[in-house]
Amino acid sequence: MINKISVIIADDHPIVRHGIKSILENSNLIDVIAEAENGEEAIKHIKELSPEIAILDMDMPKMTGLEVIQTAVQLEIKSKFIIITAYKDETLLQKALSFGVSGFLLKENALVEIILCVQKVYEGKSYISSELTSNLIYNNESKKTLDEANLQISNLTLTEKKILKLVASNKTSKEIAEELFVSYRTIENHRSNICKKLNLSGGNALLRFALENKSKF
């Protein structure tokens, strides 16, 4: 018997919530174990059920999606999180990534992309709506100038640049190791060294830099 991916869905719009649930359950790979119509219900289900993935609307009554994630992180809950939003706001995306969000979908594309997003997040990857990744920029606090980025990238070795390119393709360390015929630990060491050279910190910082600068390596 196939172990299905356990998921909860939180959105204050029943039509959106039921539409996502229907698509996920029709895949036969995903089990929607609870639904919530506000942030407080969402965190209650997350604490009680420990779903592998929680799909959260950015704007909900009582608690926003990011507030739910922040609470879950403080409680050391291991669920992974996907944010769904109607706003094409790159600053909002940057904020979500800084909170440790693994998936970020626009509502207009959610029904088309949700299954792939859940699968990628379950596999330990990040998934961002393609419409946003093509124009991804840093917010003012973390934005680097073109010259700074070029200088930093020039300090990387050929191997590190190759790894950075694969990171921008949403590949995990395990997948990169297999592609380059090296060990997982070797790739993790390379990633750590790259972050030091680029002065990056935070769980998604390397992915953000790779997406922003993927045309440069």
What's the short story on this structure?
By secondary structure, this protein is an alpha/beta fold. The chain has two domains: 5-133, Response regulator (Rossmann fold, 3-Layer(aba) Sandwich), CATH 3.40.50.2300; 146-216, Orthogonal Bundle (Arc Repressor Mutant, subunit A).
Tell me what you see in this structure.
- The protein has a six-stranded parallel β-sheet with strand order 2-1-3-4-5-6, sandwiched between helices.
- The chain has helices at residues 14-26, 39-49, 65-74, 90-98, 107-122, 130-133, 146-154, 158-168, 173-180, 184-198, 205-212, and strands spanning 5-10, 30-36, 53-57, 80-85, 103-106, 127-128.
- α8 crosses α11.
- The protein is of the alpha/beta class and 217 residues long.
- The protein is 53% helix and 14% strand.
- β1 (5-10), α1 and β2 form a beta-alpha-beta unit.
- It has two domains: 5-133, Rossmann fold (3-Layer(aba) Sandwich); 146-216, Arc Repressor Mutant, subunit A (Orthogonal Bundle), CATH 1.10.10.10.
Overall pLDDT confidence: 86
CATH T-level topology of the largest domain: Rossmann fold
Oligomer: single chain
Q: How large a portion of the residues is in β-strands, by DSSP E?
A: 5-15%
Mind telling me which CATH architecture of the largest domain this is? 3-Layer(aba) Sandwich
Biggest β-sheet description: 6 strands, parallel
Q: Strand-and-helix sequence, N→C? A: EHEHEHEHEHEHHHHHH
In terms of per-residue confidence, which ranges show pLDDT below 50 for 5 or more consecutive residues? 137-146
SSE-based structural type: alpha/beta
Give the helix tally: 11
Task: Tell me, briefly, the overall form.
Answer: globular
Number of strands: 6
As a percent range, the share of helical residues equals 40-55%
N-end to C-end Cα span: 44 Å
The CATH homologous superfamily of the largest domain is termed Response regulator
- Strand order in the largest sheet: 2-1-3-4-5-6
Number of domains: 2
Give Rg in angstroms: 18 Å
